[in-house]
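Design request, tokens follow.
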């Protein structure tokens, strides 16, 4: 491709609304342009990279036994009513009406559509399992679109769905898809982790996110310092490995704590450590008050708590609700001498607090020397806290460390969340009706492109890995008006194309500084420059990633390009 003909509108200044490197570089290098908040066009360079991401995704999905198809972006509301998500999905679902006043949605995801197709076409266990996927535009009305392609309202997604007649079949496909995802993100050169995650609005149990480690990530990952354990901090388990402190149990007594309410204030007032305080919080679970206890240096994990309680709706009680149930305001409540009708759930660590401190259920007062079991009753002890850095890894290997991550993929065991309400059934080997068991598997394709760009750049521009680069080689005639340089560059461009390399040829009548700046911006792996020594049959080759450059005879360029590209490909 001759650069004089390429639509590549580069920018010299960083756009004011671009907060992260990938967004800045993709805009400046002419890969994308914003049409509205969270909505982008892919210009020719961006489209080429996007197609390469899709090709890798497509190849690994096909290798995993999934079949590609295409479903409509415009979906009937009736299907979402069947699954129960028309109202529950929330404002992110873009809803609209047609001229006949029928409700539709722009596809945020396709569980309903694919379930309706499969239930109508598959009637026997002999046709299962089945695994299908598509690569398609999705629409979600994000409240705060940000970070360019990382959080948009319109984006490219690969979504796959599997249907099974047994749980064992789903488990097998789930592991196959996890392996395929690992292969995809490894081929893209990303520093990623597969982490245990929450299913969110999709539903189902047992799911993993694929997270690219990045300082601009919006999710926190807990991972082991010595193993491959990793989990979203919302889901990372904390095992009961505590020990009871030595010493006798003392009699509890009230102490004046004045206006101290927070854990830090109470610890300062009583000159004690936060891990000796029992933090008490009142929650309302499906309309029922539940007193929740964690150690003072820990935080309640509402996702874990919701799962433990089996609640559909869970919220921290308001001050008015707390006053009504506990007789006092938040900050002074505790589990001692309360109504037996109030459920009490405690984290494992609370059981091992000896002679602890808690609220006394009256203003300006706390109790010290409180011991669970003796002074307060607990319905059950569960893992209901967030894991902390420095905690033992749940797999027993190393300690927990934290890192931020960008979610690029997610795999779910849906079970019967959609197939049951939508009556996706089949006849088993005994001729009896059974409900299909489902899995679903998503990759944010355009988001993954941005994650690669976020990992691969410097102050000058993008540095694409070879697998995704818009071109293999960038040929530059340093001075296009110089006949010797132009002829040398023309010849090299032709030779490299004939050898099968995808080349960009900067034949523009621009200054050398402009050409080099643009070349750095767009980040093609190799650069061949015909400059002042072109008349002597000498050109310069430069590796974008390392900055290494050297001169060589034109006759050796093909061999050198082959060698350098093999090195970049890790061969």
């Amino acid at each position: 491709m001759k650069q004089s003909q390429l639509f590549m509108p580069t920018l010299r200044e960083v756009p004011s609304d671009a907060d992260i490197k990938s967004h800045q570089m993709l805009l400046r290098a002419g890969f994308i342009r914003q049409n509205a908040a969270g909505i982008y066009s892919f210009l020719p360079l961006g489209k080429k990279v996007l197609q390469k991401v899709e090709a890798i995704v497509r190849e690994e999905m096909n290798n995993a036994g999934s079949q590609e198809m295409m479903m409509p972006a415009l979906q009937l509301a009736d299907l979402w009513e069947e699954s129960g998500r028309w109202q529950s999905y929330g404002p992110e679902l873009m809803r609209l009406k047609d001229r006949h006043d029928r409700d539709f949605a722009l596809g945020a995801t396709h569980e309903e559509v694919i379930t309706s197709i499969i239930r109508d076409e598959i009637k026997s266990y002999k046709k299962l399992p089945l695994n299908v996927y598509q690569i398609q535009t999705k629409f979600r009305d994000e409240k705060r679109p940000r970070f360019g392609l990382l959080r948009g309202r319109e984006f490219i997604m690969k979504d796959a769905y599997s249907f099974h007649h047994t749980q064992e079949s789903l488990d097998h496909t789930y592991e196959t898809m996890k392996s395929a995802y690992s292969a995809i993100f490894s081929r893209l050169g990303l520093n990623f982790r597969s982490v245990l995650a929450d299913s969110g609005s999709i539903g189902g149990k047992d799911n993993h996110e694929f997270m690219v480690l990045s300082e601009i990530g919006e999710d926190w990952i807990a991972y082991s310092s010595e193993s491959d354990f990793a989990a979203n901090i919302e889901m990372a388990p904390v095992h009961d490995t505590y020990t009871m402190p030595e010493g006798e149990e003392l009699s509890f007594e009230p102490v004046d704590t004045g206006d101290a309410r927070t854990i830090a204030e109470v610890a300062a007032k009583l000159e004690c450590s936060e891990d000796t305080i029992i933090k008490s919080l009142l929650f309302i679970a499906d309309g029922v008050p539940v007193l929740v206890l964690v150690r003072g240096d820990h935080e309640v994990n509402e996702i874990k708590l919701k799962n433990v309680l089996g609640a559909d709706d869970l919220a921290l009680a308001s001050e008015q609700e707390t006053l009504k149930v506990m007789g006092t305001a938040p900050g002074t409540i505790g589990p001692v001498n309360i109504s037996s009708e109030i459920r009490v759930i405690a984290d494992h660590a609370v059981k091992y607090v000896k002679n602890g401190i808690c609220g006394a259920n009256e203003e300006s007062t706390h109790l010290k020397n409180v011991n669970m079991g003796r002074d307060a009753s607990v319905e059950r002890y569960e893992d209901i806290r967030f894991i902390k850095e420095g905690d033992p890894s749940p797999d027993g290997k190393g300690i927990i460390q934290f890192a931020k991550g960008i979610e690029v993929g997610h795999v779910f065991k849906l079970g019967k969340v959609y197939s049951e309400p939508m009556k996706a059934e089949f006849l088993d080997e005994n001729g009896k009706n059974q409900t299909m068991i489902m899995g679903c598997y998503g990759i944010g394709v355009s988001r993954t492109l941005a994650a690669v760009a976020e990992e691969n750049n410097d102050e000058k521009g993008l540095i694409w890995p070879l697998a995704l680069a818009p071109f293999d080689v960038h040929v530059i005639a340093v001075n296009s008006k110089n006949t010797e340089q132009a002829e040398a560059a023309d010849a090299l461009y032709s030779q490299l194309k004939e050898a099968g390399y995808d080349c960009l040829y900067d034949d523009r009548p621009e200054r050398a500084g402009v050409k080099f700046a643009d070349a750095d911006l767009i980040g093609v792996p190799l650069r061949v420059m015909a400059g002042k020594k072109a008349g002597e049959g000498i050109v310069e080759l430069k590796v974008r990633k390392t900055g290494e450059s050297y001169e060589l005879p034109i006759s050796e360029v093909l061999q050198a390009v082959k060698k350098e590209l093999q090195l970049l490909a890790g061969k």
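Comment from the thread starter after seeing the answer: thanks! The chain has three domains: 49-236+402-453, 253-382, 471-568.
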